Amino acid sequence: QLQLVESGGDLVQPGGSLRLSCVAYRDGLDFYAIGWFRQAPGQGREGVSMISRSGGFTDYNASVKGRFTISRDNAERTVYLQMNDLNYEDTGIYYCAATRLPRPDLSPTQYNFWGQGTQVTVSS
């Protein structure tokens, strides 16, 4: 069964940047569309971005469009989330998730496999 492991979360000042990584184990990444989600304290999990199996299609939450970029390297079994111009509202636990759906939206219910999350804190 597919296993996902996130890394790259950290404490960063407003306006700073981070790059998150999501590495797949026990199965090839080629078979899955990948989404990034986040959960702030006391709030529900929201979709941030997704990328199709080939990488040819991407989608973003309106709140991150123009600041975040999702990409993937199937040979390395890794999906990245480049986050620029971070603000306080970007704070939360970031999760990557996988689905065999060819073009899922940003609803968490469409994803079957989840990582354990990585903490991103934006603070001065």
The structural class is mainly beta
Q: What would you report as the Rg, rounded to the nearest angstrom? A: 13 Å
Our estimate of the beta-strand percent is over 45%
Mean pLDDT value? 96
First-residue to last-residue Cα separation: 40 Å
How would you describe the shape? globular
- Main beta sheet, described? 7 strands, mixed
Total number of β-strand segments? 11
Listing every helix as H and every strand as E from the N terminus to the C terminus, the arrangement reads EEEEEEEEEEE
Q: Summarize the amount of helix as a percent range.
A: under 10%
Q: Uncertain regions: pLDDT < 50 for 5+ in a row? A: none
Question: How many helices?
Answer: 0
Topology:
Blueprint: E1 3-7, E2 11-12, E3 18-25, E4 33-39, E5 45-51, E6 58-60, E7 68-73, E8 78-83, E9 92-99, E10 113-114, E11 118-122
Parallel strand pairs: 2-11
Antiparallel strand pairs: 1-3, 3-8, 4-5, 4-9, 5-6, 7-8, 9-10, 9-11
Quick take:
The protein is mainly β and about 120 residues long. The protein has strands spanning about 5, 10, 20-25, 35-40, 45-50, 60, 70-75, 80-85, 90-100, 115, 120.
Can you offer a commentary on this structure?
- The protein is an all-beta fold and 124 residues long.
- It has no helices and eleven strands.
- It has strands spanning 3-7, 11-12, 18-25, 33-39, 45-51, 58-60, 68-73, 78-83, 92-99, 113-114, 118-122.
- The strands form two sheets. Strands 2, 4, 5, 6, 9, 10 and 11 form a seven-stranded mixed sheet that branches.
- A hairpin with a 6-residue loop joins strand 5 (45-51) and strand 6.
- The mean pLDDT is 96.
